[in-house]
Request: fold
Amino acid sequence: MPIIILPDEVASQIAAGEVVERPASAVKELLENALDAGASQIIIRLEKAGKKMIEVLDDGSGIPYNQMELAVSRHATSKLRQTSDLQQVRTLGFRGEALASIGSVSYLTMLSRTADAPTGGRLVVQGGHITDISQTGMSTGTTVTVRDLFYNVPARLKFLKTDATERQRIDEFVTRYAFAYSHVRFQLQHDGKILLQTNGNGDRRETLSNLYGVDLAKQMIDVTLDEGAFKVEGFTSPISLTRSNRKDITFFVNGRWIQDNALNSALLHAYQTYLMVGRYPVAILMITMPPEMVDVNVHPTKAEVRFEDSGAIFSRVQRAVRRALLAYSPVPQIPNRLWHPSPQYLEAENVVSSAMDQTVQPEQFVDNPALEPSQTTFQEVQMPLLRLVGQVGATYLVAEGPDGLYLIDQHAAHERVLYEKFTSRKDSLPVSQPLLEPVIVHLTPDKARLLEGSLDILNGLGFVVENFGPQTFRIRSIPAFISGADPTAALQVLVEDFEEDETPLANEREKRIIARICKRSAVKGGQILSVEEQSRLLRDLETCVSPRTCPHGRPTMIHLSVDLLERQFGRRGSR
Reply:
């Protein structure tokens, strides 16, 4: 096949694929253009998650009428003049590709007027071709309307996610920028419904409250580091407020939202020894530094950067967050019951100590090659009757069976018990426990939308949850057998990292929701249980259909057979 020069239309669509991957990408480019124009108010309107329509209105500086046609051309920008300008980019946009890329895969209409012009201009682009340009009356600023995104690129349209997932991506992006630019009034509408609105007064903690809820905003810790040209400011969570993933960690560098592994590592190093494995903080940090020290021309989406001295950046971010945590951390309080243990606890503790004096310590053989994995985990389904010995480390139950010793993870075991109680009642009417006072929960726009899609399932499981305003829900009842759990925590855990299209089948989605509720409601490691509570948990576990693992697949117990113990003590020799 001979080599040819691609037609401009094909080249434009290829370039658009790098810049505009989904509706959220188009929103990002248009929003950043509005911020670069100095807007004090930005309104974003969407229909069908942006697939049908995206409209971004701003009151910024606008585009002169005689430059509107040039503005939608490829590599046309007002932000760069020469190669050296790339070394100190001070704006969010600079590549001159956004409007041209969006216009090549949609029907784009742009209205714009500058403050010194008597009238504005109207320009229409269809599939990369300008079809109309004329003057029109309007207020100062720019309005860009994008309709039928990817109408001429069916392959890209086919691979978009569900409307709920695409809306979630947009909500996440706009929420972050609304915080970073707290001096700008933001409004986000989905299908005519206002989901997000800020007042633009510049108070970041107040903006944080509007976006994430009052309770979270009160808990967040101020982070401040000022070293002249280098600054770190924002908020991070105390060690009591964590998430199961990194999705709520956000970094802005010179006003640009970026994703950088080194910055994530710096933040997590600041929390080293403070957080459990698998838990992550909530953080929104703004880094200001000389533009020549960071290269933003790495990828067309401008979401990645390179630092001139990544080690220095790492050190400063880690130091800023660690200092904030140390300044906040209260003096640990020792529970009274550790000073005055109950007779039941003393009895259990003595039993455990006595039993462990007569058994092998796990750390003595954990690395022993003679110990095969099949000897420490169960292959069969049946579980024998067990005799409780006690609790060790306030985390594990020790029990004796007919064939050896059993160490049971109390959290994983309780998860399994709750899960099977939940699922066994699925065919009958759920028993709900009304709350004395309804609990109000405030969520971010993206998480509120996920929860809205799960309300029917929740109400069918014994919850009574209802909408109570924008991004706000009221919990009136919870399932009776988790009545001791925190209603807010039980609800919030459902949306921590649940993607709308992860489990397309309704029954699988319900199982995952039940598993999440049980995980949050189960007793925790480090929680001291009375002898009665230990015994009850053991009996409940014995009645489970699948007692060997928790609903997430983690083992609930480890078996140390009599044969293994005799070999470890040299009674039979080693094989």
Remarks:
- The longest strand covers residues 432-442.
- The mean pLDDT is 79.
